Amino acid sequence: MATAPSAQRSRSNPSPCDVRPLHHDVPALRNSDSNHLHFRFQSLVSCPADAPLELFETAVSQLIHHPEYNSTLILRSETISDSDTTIPSSVPRLEGYCPVRNVHRKLLPRRPGRDSGLEQHCTLYALETGDFAGLPSMLVLTPLVSEGESLPYYHPTVSHLVFRFIPSNSTTTPDSASTQPALRIGVVQHPGTPTDPNSRLYTPIVTFGVHSLIIRSAYSMMSPYPEKYIKTYISKCDIGIATFLMLFWKDMFATSADRAAVKELDDSQWTSWPRPSGGFLDLGCGNGLLTHILSVSAEGYSGYGIDLCARISWAHYPDSSQTALKVHALDPTQLLSPSSSNDEEISLWEHGVFLIGNHADELTPWLPVLATRAGASGYLSIPCMDPDAATAAVSNEVEVEAVFISSLGLGAEGTHKSQYSAYRIWLARLSQWLGWKIECDTLQIPSTRNWAIVTKSFQETRMFL
Question: 268 near 47, Cβ under 8 Å?
């Protein structure tokens, strides 16, 4: 009889960034004197931005039109109006900025019986003067709530939330030309709203981190692609998975000294975050974008991606990425067999390697087995629907404790009746039977198959193969 995993999902524990080293002379964001309401935005978090301002509007457009990518409590949004000429009087007028576009949207909750919908103004602003005048560089989200009503649970208790791109020459320091641009989040919180890092007010930090990575990765990857491949291969799924892995590895492999040292999202610490000692191995890497992001796009994680055949996209990556992408037919039954493994194959399976199975199809059930045999440090499995394996899982179904099923976070399909749910339960039981301590999570990626098993340690009782 299976038992529930002993390890509970770790609580988010973000650290606010000290914004002073980035732009200590950037004026505080506040409303103009012509506005009868007087308020100032409180800066919460900031990180460097090594992408041009021209990409800011593209990145935040995903935040505007697809809020469901960043919250499992939101189903989608409906656009009520979108105008670059008519700006509602209810949106804030801010010093040094002029509104250039307003999207009036309605957020639709995933569970309308519990949460209510919410209308919101999404206003893009541009600097009024300077080299970047006219280019959108700031997004302000303003919830529309009637007097006496409260905000739904999925929205932080703020009257305004700002995503701000600060160009390098926005400072007044003598060396402003060399100052790095930054991305910053600020809020006008409701009275009494906690602002400590463990409060719900810091939930947008995750959104901010994902979208800053979208900006960085999109910029670094657009140039190598022929135009017809850009939309196909710049996948938000891979960018979201890369972000998840970087943060997960940072926590998983950090020593106490690392935890004390790594507090800010500046460039030097970002690229030196803890990581798997044996690198990573992406099984069935497909277009290779995840491998490219992790190993090349300023992140510097060592590892490989393997697949049965090369994709068109591989030829458009830098040489260093092409070196990390391998055409390899993996036979799990022959893994590490002295009679069949060559030196190149053995080099892929370094001790302590972290395995990645992102919709790895028929390799998905093998992932915990391969991780055990290879002495892996852990693995991430994002299963899709493999009809053969799912059918076998259903036909071999055994009684499973309800507490174990509830610990898996299967969502609305968390019963034995769905073939996909039965498949996921079977995968979780297999991983646990092999001795892995499993954690399950729903990744913030634009995919209906975003449920994942992630492991980082063994239980006391372990089955050796």
Answer: no
CA angle 133, 19, 140 (to 5 degrees): 45
Cβ–Cβ < 8 Å for 443, 237: no
How deeply is 203 buried, as exposed, middle or buried, from its count of CB atoms within 10 A (0-12, 13-18, 19+)?
middle
Estimate to the nearest angstrom the gap between the alpha carbon of 15 and the chain centroid.
17
Residues 288 and 314: beta-carbon distance below 8 Å: yes
**C-alpha 101: how far from its chain's center?**
27
Q: Along the 465 residues of the chain, how does pLDDT read in single tens digits?
A: 334 444 443 333 444 544 444 443 455 566 655 554 557 788 887 777 767 888 888 888 888 988 887 777 888 899 999 999 999 988 888 888 999 999 999 999 988 888 899 999 999 999 998 888 999 999 999 999 988 888 998 888 888 989 999 887 654 444 444 467 888 888 888 877 776 666 667 655 555 555 555 555 555 555 555 544 444 445 678 888 888 898 889 888 886 555 555 444 444 456 678 889 899 999 999 888 899 888 865 457 899 999 999 988 888 888 888 999 999 888 888 775 555 555 566 678 888 999 999 988 888 999 999 999 888 999 999 998 765 655 555 555 555 567 677 777 776 544 556 778 888 888 888 888 898 988 888 887 777 788 889 998 776 444 444
> Within 10 A of 189 (CB to CB), how many other CB atoms are there?
20
How far from 35 is each of 23, 89, 94, CA to CA, in Å? 27, 10, 9
How far is the C-alpha of 56 from the C-alpha of 141, rounded, in Å?
15
Neighbours of 35 (CB within 10 A): 14
SS3 labels along 184-232: EEEEEECCCCCCCCCCHHHCHHHHHHHHHHHHHHHHHHHCCCCHHHHHH
For 417, residues 6+ apart whose C-beta sits below 8 A from its C-beta are none
Q: Are 139 and 122 in contact (CB under 8 A)?
A: yes
Residues 309, 296: Cα–Cα separation, whole Å? 21
Of 56, 110, 67, 78, the residue nearest 206 (C-alpha): 67
What six digits make up the tokens of 346? Answer: 């053995």
C-alpha distances (whole Å) from 455 to each of 96, 178, 199, 441 are 49, 42, 27, 11
37 closest CA partner among 1, 106, 90: 90
Residues 341-371 as b/e (b if ≥16 CB within 10 A, e otherwise) read: eeeebeebbbeebbbbbbbbeebbbbbbbbb
Which H/E stretch holds residue 441?
A: strand 436-442
Report the interhelical angle of 419-433 vs 387-395 (nearest 10°).
80
